[in-house]
Design a protein that fits this description.
8 strands, 173 residues, alpha/beta, 40% helix, five-stranded parallel sheet, single chain, 9 helices
């Protein structure tokens, strides 16, 4: 098993005294950049020395899988960013059909939030996904679902269709 060694020096020894060792493992592993989520923090081995140096080891495959997850991210964008978007992308509207019928951004693909988990396979892996809803709340949740499903380039449209309309951008009915 390949491992990655890391070392992190704390300047405040009192921090180590205040934290339990299990919490210290989580904090140091996250701060050390070796573990990017709490799920894998327990897979790091951490020991402290009297001079406040934290030494640790983490399984290389765990670190590499976390690096792959970092490449996939959610980017919050404005409606102007979406209006000026270029390249290959898809706009995903996660509102309900009745909301969509009242008005939507031109060219969107409608997959209501309640159907998204079952229909994620319909979405491309090779395009940026702009996710929009009414005001930005559902699109943020949907963006997280897409990230968890392995989509790489996710862009949550802040303010949703409301912000789009308020900006005077075109609405289809």
């Amino acid at each position: 098993m390949e491992v990655i060694m890391f070392q992190f020096k704390l300047t405040h020894r009192t921090l180590i005294k205040l934290l339990s060792i299990s919490f210290a493992i989580v904090v140091i592993a996250l701060l050390g950049g070796c573990v990017k989520s709490l799920d894998n923090a327990s897979k790091a081995s951490v020991k402290t020395t009297q001079d406040g140096v934290i030494n640790g080891v983490i399984n290389k495959s765990v670190a590499e899988s976390q690096e792959a997850q970092i490449e996939a991210k959610i980017q919050n964008v404005t409606v102007q960013d979406l209006a000026n978007a270029s390249g290959d992308y898809l706009i995903l509207d996660v509102r309900e059909q009745w909301e969509y019928d009242q008005g939507h951004v031109p060219g969107v693909t409608l997959i209501p939030m309640g159907q998204l988990e079952q229909r994620i396979s319909e979405l491309p892996d090779d395009k940026a996904l702009y996710v929009i809803c009414h005001s930005g709340v559902r699109s943020a949740k949907a963006s997280d679902m897409l990230l968890q499903a392995g989509k790489k380039d996710i862009r949550n449209v802040l303010g949703g269709t409301v912000a789009w309309a308020q900006a005077g951008l075109p609405i289809e009915r």
